[in-house]
Write a structure and sequence with these properties.
Bound molecules: pyridoxal-5'-phosphate
Strand content: 15-25%
Helix content: 40-55%
Structural class: alpha/beta
Order of helices and strands: HEHHHEHEHEHEHEHEEHHHEEHEEEH
Shape: globular
Number of helices: 14
Length: 355
């Protein structure tokens, strides 16, 4: 057949997102780190009150209502904020704006599996540097790799650890290209790299409303960086990249910090309990600054356990990637959902002697 695609597209493997069954499917979904609680009532109220005019007209190109809300909540001037259709879009825009064929994209592994896909689209040279023992940041190697773009997810997925502000600051001081800190899970963590944006013109912090704010379906994220750098990114984004509904609902959600914090507090308490329960079942569980746990079942291959849970209607994340094939990433649910998971695991791992 005639080859219509760019060679790079033909050769790459596309990104494989986690399974997304339709809402209403009787399944316990602990595979893609959604927040188990509903979005802010204030945000839902805005959604219900929108009249058709918001759909008929084009949205503002820079999602001004959302930009203003982020500005107030984080105390950052609006010109330092770019809103995107999920933080995935922002990553995509950053890669397209900064990386042309042959330029280097550098990141420590394991990390977010979208990064290599975005790099492949740009025909970038990818340099992956493994985290050390205890997820120690390979700082010297990252610096030596000399990327046009260095990507750090902190807190990271799937490891659940956070890279300290001190280490990120040292990295920012020593890299020459752009440094992106992907803070998708920052709402569940104790540290943020946000101060670095003010200290360094080449640092971009990106965040999302998908995890902390229970709005994964809305598709809304934002980047914070120096206005000179954002000016370049704005040239690359779609003219109307954020829809009118996402912009208004997101603005209400981020303004409702009290509600977000209440949900985060519940998730963090459940995180402690779920980790304890999994350790009781002979899992290795890594410390987490996120809304999921990286775990290693010791009594069963992870792939087998993934399938056995799925057969019982429970989805967790299994990664067929080097270093991860013996592990499962489990999203923290409500107390009830976590109990259901633990009960299912008890049945699978310790079947009764007599049936
Ligand atoms: C979930 C996630 C994202 C994507 O967030 P969206 O805003 O839903 O696109 C980005 N980075 C990491 C590390 C994530 O886990």
């Amino acid at each position: 057949m005639m080859n219509y695609l760019r060679p790079a597209i033909q050769q790459m493997t596309g990104y494989t997102p986690g399974e997304q069954p339709r809402p209403g499917t009787p399944i316990l979904k602990l595979n893609t780190n959604e927040n188990p609680y509903p979005p802010s009532p204030a945000a839902l109220e805005v959604l219900r009150s929108l009249d058709s005019e918001w759909l008929r007209r084009y949205p503002t190109p820079y999602a001004n209502d959302m930009r203003q809300a982020v500005s107030e909540v984080l105390d950052v001037p609006p010109e330092w904020i770019m809103v995107g259709n999920g933080s995935d879009e922002l990553l995509n825009v950053i890669l397209r704006a900064c990386v042309e064929p042959g330029r280097k994209v550098v990141y420590p592994t394991p990390t977010y599996v979208l990064y290599p896909t975005l790099a492949a689209l740009q025909v970038a040279e990818v340099v992956e540097i493994p985290y050390g023992a205890g997820w120690q940041l390979p700082l010297a190697e990252l610096v030596a790799a000399n990327g046009h773009l260095t990507l750090i997810a902190s807190p990271n997925s799937p490891t659940a650890h956070v890279v300290s502000l001190t280490e990120l600051r040292e990295l920012a001081q020593r890299v020459t290209g752009v440094l992106v800190v992907d803070e998708a899970y920052v709402d569940f963590a104790t540290e943020t790299a946000l101060p670095l944006v003010q200290e360094f013109k080449h640092v971009i912090v990106i965040r999302t409303l998908s995890k902390g704010y229970s709005l994964a379906g809305l598709r809304l994220g934002f980047a914070i960086a120096h206005p000179d750098l954002l000016e370049g990114l704005f040239k690359v984004k779609d003219s109307y990249n954020v829809d009118a509904i996402a912009c208004l609902v997101g603005a209400a959600a981020i303004r409702d910090q009290a509600y977000k914090q209440a949900c985060v507090t519940k998730v963090k308490a459940a995180r402690v309990k779920l980790a304890d329960d999994l350790r009781q079942l002979n899992f290795k569980v890594w410390d987490s600054q996120t809304n999921f746990l990286l775990t290693q079942p010791r009594d069963r291959p992870a792939a087998t356990l993934y399938q056995e849970l799925k057969d019982q209607g429970i989805l967790v994340r299994y990664f067929n990637h080097a270093g991860l094939t013996d592990k499962l990433r489990i999203t923290i649910g409500t107390d009830d959902q976590n109990r259901t998971l633990i009960t299912a695991l008890q049945t699978i791992l310790n079947p009764p002697l007599f049936r």
